[in-house]
Amino acid sequence: MSGLVLRLAGLLQSFGERGVFHYRDTCAFPTRSALIGMFAAAQGRPREHALDPYPHLQAPGDTTAPSHRDLTLTVRIDQPGTLYRDFHTVGGGRPREQSLRTGDGTRRKPAASTLVSHRDYLTGAVYTVAVTGPALLTAHIAETLERPRFGLFLGRRACLPDEPLLLNPDSPDPVQELLTRTPLTRNRPPNPADTHLPTTFVWEHPPPGTDPTTPPDRESTSEPVNLTRHARRHLPRPLWMTTEPLPAHLYAGPRPIDALTAYMHGEPA
To answer: Counting CB atoms within 10 angstroms of each CB, which of 16, 60, 126, 147 has the fewest?
Structure first.
Protein backbone atom coordinates (compact mmCIF):
# COMPACT_ATOMS: atom_id res chain seq x y z
CA MET A 1 0.00 0.00 0.00
CA SER A 2 1.17 3.52 -0.81
CA GLY A 3 -0.46 6.72 -1.96
CA LEU A 4 -0.39 10.25 -3.22
CA VAL A 5 -1.26 13.75 -2.01
CA LEU A 6 -3.57 16.09 -3.92
CA ARG A 7 -4.46 19.74 -3.45
CA LEU A 8 -7.92 20.83 -4.56
CA ALA A 9 -8.23 24.59 -4.99
CA GLY A 10 -9.92 26.82 -7.53
CA LEU A 11 -12.23 29.75 -8.05
CA LEU A 12 -15.27 27.50 -7.64
CA GLN A 13 -15.85 23.99 -6.34
CA SER A 14 -19.09 22.06 -5.99
CA PHE A 15 -19.54 18.50 -4.75
CA GLY A 16 -23.16 17.45 -5.03
CA GLU A 17 -24.40 15.07 -2.37
CA ARG A 18 -28.21 15.00 -2.52
CA GLY A 19 -29.61 17.73 -4.79
CA VAL A 20 -31.02 17.04 -8.26
CA PHE A 21 -33.19 18.89 -10.78
CA HIS A 22 -34.17 22.34 -9.42
CA TYR A 23 -31.67 22.45 -6.54
CA ARG A 24 -28.04 21.32 -6.82
CA ASP A 25 -26.37 21.31 -3.44
CA THR A 26 -22.71 21.05 -2.50
CA CYS A 27 -21.06 19.12 0.28
CA ALA A 28 -18.66 21.08 2.51
CA PHE A 29 -15.73 18.96 1.29
CA PRO A 30 -14.83 16.81 -1.74
CA THR A 31 -16.92 13.66 -1.99
CA ARG A 32 -15.60 10.19 -2.77
CA SER A 33 -17.69 10.11 -5.94
CA ALA A 34 -16.22 13.38 -7.24
CA LEU A 35 -12.64 12.23 -6.67
CA ILE A 36 -13.14 8.80 -8.25
CA GLY A 37 -14.82 10.52 -11.19
CA MET A 38 -11.78 12.80 -11.52
CA PHE A 39 -9.44 9.79 -11.55
CA ALA A 40 -11.54 8.11 -14.25
CA ALA A 41 -11.52 11.29 -16.35
CA ALA A 42 -7.74 11.54 -16.11
CA GLN A 43 -7.50 7.98 -17.41
CA GLY A 44 -9.86 8.69 -20.31
CA ARG A 45 -12.52 6.29 -19.04
CA PRO A 46 -16.07 6.94 -20.32
CA ARG A 47 -18.82 7.01 -17.72
CA GLU A 48 -19.99 3.45 -18.42
CA HIS A 49 -16.49 2.14 -17.61
CA ALA A 50 -15.48 4.64 -14.92
CA LEU A 51 -15.89 2.10 -12.11
CA ASP A 52 -14.41 -0.93 -13.86
CA PRO A 53 -11.55 -2.75 -12.07
CA TYR A 54 -7.94 -2.62 -13.32
CA PRO A 55 -6.87 -6.15 -14.34
CA HIS A 56 -3.66 -4.84 -15.94
CA LEU A 57 -2.61 -3.49 -12.52
CA GLN A 58 -3.09 -6.75 -10.64
CA ALA A 59 0.01 -7.53 -8.58
CA PRO A 60 1.53 -11.03 -8.55
CA GLY A 61 -0.20 -13.17 -5.97
CA ASP A 62 -3.39 -11.10 -5.89
CA THR A 63 -6.61 -13.01 -6.50
CA THR A 64 -8.62 -10.02 -7.75
CA ALA A 65 -7.88 -6.92 -9.79
CA PRO A 66 -7.66 -3.61 -7.89
CA SER A 67 -10.55 -1.16 -8.17
CA HIS A 68 -11.69 2.17 -6.81
CA ARG A 69 -13.09 0.30 -3.81
CA ASP A 70 -9.52 -0.37 -2.69
CA LEU A 71 -8.82 3.36 -2.32
CA THR A 72 -9.08 5.20 0.99
CA LEU A 73 -9.51 8.99 0.85
CA THR A 74 -8.64 11.32 3.73
CA VAL A 75 -9.53 15.00 3.37
CA ARG A 76 -7.87 17.88 5.19
CA ILE A 77 -9.93 21.08 5.09
CA ASP A 78 -7.36 23.86 4.80
CA GLN A 79 -9.95 26.55 3.98
CA PRO A 80 -13.68 25.76 4.13
CA GLY A 81 -14.53 28.48 1.62
CA THR A 82 -17.73 30.50 1.34
CA LEU A 83 -21.06 29.17 0.09
CA TYR A 84 -22.23 30.85 -3.13
CA ARG A 85 -25.67 30.17 -4.66
CA ASP A 86 -26.13 30.72 -8.37
CA PHE A 87 -29.56 31.34 -9.92
CA HIS A 88 -30.20 29.60 -13.27
CA THR A 89 -32.97 29.64 -15.84
CA VAL A 90 -33.08 27.13 -18.69
CA GLY A 91 -35.29 26.88 -21.77
CA GLY A 92 -37.11 30.22 -21.71
CA GLY A 93 -37.90 32.20 -24.85
CA ARG A 94 -37.73 29.28 -27.29
CA PRO A 95 -40.46 28.34 -29.77
CA ARG A 96 -42.71 25.41 -28.81
CA GLU A 97 -40.82 22.93 -31.04
CA GLN A 98 -37.58 23.78 -29.21
CA SER A 99 -38.93 23.97 -25.66
CA LEU A 100 -37.78 21.61 -22.93
CA ARG A 101 -39.26 18.14 -22.77
CA THR A 102 -41.32 16.76 -19.92
CA GLY A 103 -40.78 13.43 -18.22
CA ASP A 104 -42.97 11.61 -20.76
CA GLY A 105 -41.10 13.10 -23.72
CA THR A 106 -43.60 15.76 -24.81
CA ARG A 107 -42.75 19.45 -25.13
CA ARG A 108 -43.51 21.91 -22.38
CA LYS A 109 -46.17 24.54 -22.94
CA PRO A 110 -44.86 28.12 -23.50
CA ALA A 111 -46.13 29.26 -20.09
CA ALA A 112 -44.11 26.52 -18.39
CA SER A 113 -41.12 26.42 -20.71
CA THR A 114 -38.67 28.08 -18.31
CA LEU A 115 -37.08 25.97 -15.58
CA VAL A 116 -35.63 27.78 -12.59
CA SER A 117 -32.86 26.15 -10.59
CA HIS A 118 -30.39 27.04 -7.85
CA ARG A 119 -26.86 25.68 -7.76
CA ASP A 120 -24.51 25.88 -4.80
CA TYR A 121 -20.76 26.42 -5.08
CA LEU A 122 -17.85 26.96 -2.70
CA THR A 123 -15.57 29.93 -3.32
CA GLY A 124 -12.08 30.23 -1.87
CA ALA A 125 -12.03 26.65 -0.55
CA VAL A 126 -8.81 24.63 -0.34
CA TYR A 127 -8.54 20.92 0.45
CA THR A 128 -5.57 18.58 0.71
CA VAL A 129 -6.36 14.92 0.09
CA ALA A 130 -4.43 11.75 0.91
CA VAL A 131 -5.22 8.86 -1.46
CA THR A 132 -4.10 5.46 -0.16
CA GLY A 133 -4.36 2.14 -1.96
CA PRO A 134 -2.51 -0.58 -3.89
CA ALA A 135 0.83 0.75 -5.10
CA LEU A 136 0.27 -0.04 -8.79
CA LEU A 137 -3.14 1.63 -8.76
CA THR A 138 -2.07 4.82 -6.97
CA ALA A 139 0.98 5.10 -9.27
CA HIS A 140 -1.34 4.80 -12.28
CA ILE A 141 -3.65 7.49 -10.87
CA ALA A 142 -0.71 9.84 -10.25
CA GLU A 143 0.67 9.31 -13.75
CA THR A 144 -2.67 10.03 -15.43
CA LEU A 145 -3.40 13.08 -13.26
CA GLU A 146 -0.16 14.60 -14.54
CA ARG A 147 -1.20 13.88 -18.16
CA PRO A 148 -5.01 13.68 -18.13
CA ARG A 149 -6.86 12.45 -21.22
CA PHE A 150 -10.14 14.18 -20.31
CA GLY A 151 -10.53 17.56 -18.63
CA LEU A 152 -10.40 17.62 -14.84
CA PHE A 153 -12.84 19.59 -12.72
CA LEU A 154 -13.77 20.05 -9.06
CA GLY A 155 -17.22 18.50 -8.95
CA ARG A 156 -18.79 20.33 -11.91
CA ARG A 157 -17.47 21.11 -15.37
CA ALA A 158 -17.38 24.85 -14.66
CA CYS A 159 -15.05 24.31 -11.68
CA LEU A 160 -11.48 24.09 -12.91
CA PRO A 161 -8.64 23.15 -10.53
CA ASP A 162 -5.71 25.44 -9.78
CA GLU A 163 -2.14 24.26 -10.09
CA PRO A 164 -0.49 22.42 -8.52
CA LEU A 165 -3.00 19.58 -8.29
CA LEU A 166 -0.68 16.65 -7.59
CA LEU A 167 1.65 17.52 -4.71
CA ASN A 168 3.23 14.13 -4.04
CA PRO A 169 2.82 11.26 -6.54
CA ASP A 170 4.45 8.59 -4.40
CA SER A 171 4.24 8.71 -0.63
CA PRO A 172 4.65 5.69 1.67
CA ASP A 173 2.26 7.34 4.16
CA PRO A 174 0.19 10.17 2.65
CA VAL A 175 -1.96 10.59 5.77
CA GLN A 176 1.14 11.29 7.83
CA GLU A 177 2.13 13.81 5.14
CA LEU A 178 -1.12 15.71 5.80
CA LEU A 179 -0.47 15.70 9.54
CA THR A 180 3.19 16.69 9.58
CA ARG A 181 4.59 17.95 6.24
CA THR A 182 2.17 19.21 3.59
CA PRO A 183 1.88 23.05 3.62
CA LEU A 184 -1.36 24.42 4.97
CA THR A 185 -3.12 27.18 3.03
CA ARG A 186 -4.86 29.72 5.25
CA ASN A 187 -6.26 33.19 4.55
CA ARG A 188 -4.94 34.49 7.85
CA PRO A 189 -1.52 33.85 9.39
CA PRO A 190 -1.37 32.23 12.81
CA ASN A 191 -0.75 34.36 15.85
CA PRO A 192 2.93 34.53 16.89
CA ALA A 193 2.14 32.59 20.05
CA ASP A 194 0.34 29.77 18.24
CA THR A 195 2.22 26.47 18.16
CA HIS A 196 -0.59 24.47 16.57
CA LEU A 197 -3.39 25.15 14.10
CA PRO A 198 -6.67 23.27 14.69
CA THR A 199 -7.65 21.74 11.33
CA THR A 200 -10.64 19.63 10.33
CA PHE A 201 -10.07 16.16 8.86
CA VAL A 202 -12.61 13.88 7.19
CA TRP A 203 -11.89 10.14 7.45
CA GLU A 204 -13.48 7.16 5.70
CA HIS A 205 -12.55 4.88 8.60
CA PRO A 206 -12.20 5.50 12.34
CA PRO A 207 -9.21 7.86 12.72
CA PRO A 208 -5.85 6.44 13.79
CA GLY A 209 -5.51 6.09 17.53
CA THR A 210 -9.27 5.97 18.20
CA ASP A 211 -11.49 3.10 19.23
CA PRO A 212 -12.33 1.17 16.03
CA THR A 213 -15.92 0.86 17.25
CA THR A 214 -16.35 4.67 17.37
CA PRO A 215 -19.59 5.51 15.53
CA PRO A 216 -19.32 7.81 12.50
CA ASP A 217 -20.08 11.52 12.76
CA ARG A 218 -22.13 11.64 9.59
CA GLU A 219 -23.14 9.70 6.51
CA SER A 220 -22.53 10.79 2.94
CA THR A 221 -24.29 9.44 -0.15
CA SER A 222 -21.02 9.35 -2.05
CA GLU A 223 -20.08 5.73 -2.77
CA PRO A 224 -20.49 5.51 -6.56
CA VAL A 225 -22.30 2.48 -7.96
CA ASN A 226 -23.12 3.81 -11.43
CA LEU A 227 -21.83 7.06 -12.97
CA THR A 228 -23.66 6.93 -16.31
CA ARG A 229 -25.70 10.02 -17.04
CA HIS A 230 -29.21 8.52 -16.84
CA ALA A 231 -28.62 5.82 -14.24
CA ARG A 232 -26.46 7.46 -11.58
CA ARG A 233 -26.60 5.71 -8.25
CA HIS A 234 -24.66 6.14 -5.02
CA LEU A 235 -24.69 4.33 -1.73
CA PRO A 236 -24.28 5.95 1.70
CA ARG A 237 -20.85 5.85 3.31
CA PRO A 238 -19.99 6.60 6.96
CA LEU A 239 -17.52 9.39 7.68
CA TRP A 240 -15.60 10.42 10.77
CA MET A 241 -14.59 14.04 11.41
CA THR A 242 -11.88 15.22 13.77
CA THR A 243 -9.98 18.39 14.60
CA GLU A 244 -6.23 17.80 14.48
CA PRO A 245 -3.61 20.20 15.97
CA LEU A 246 -1.23 20.70 13.07
CA PRO A 247 2.18 22.33 13.67
CA ALA A 248 1.99 26.08 13.10
CA HIS A 249 5.08 25.98 10.86
CA LEU A 250 2.98 24.23 8.19
CA TYR A 251 1.29 27.57 7.43
CA ALA A 252 2.15 28.22 3.77
CA GLY A 253 2.39 32.00 4.11
CA PRO A 254 0.82 34.75 1.99
CA ARG A 255 2.20 33.11 -1.21
CA PRO A 256 1.30 29.42 -0.82
CA ILE A 257 2.87 28.53 -4.17
CA ASP A 258 6.35 29.10 -2.71
CA ALA A 259 5.84 26.63 0.16
CA LEU A 260 4.06 24.15 -2.13
CA THR A 261 6.91 24.25 -4.64
CA ALA A 262 9.45 23.63 -1.90
CA TYR A 263 7.37 20.71 -0.61
CA MET A 264 7.11 19.20 -4.10
CA HIS A 265 10.90 19.36 -4.42
CA GLY A 266 11.31 17.48 -1.14
CA GLU A 267 12.59 20.36 0.95
CA PRO A 268 12.04 20.03 4.74
CA ALA A 269 8.81 21.46 6.12
So the answer is: 60
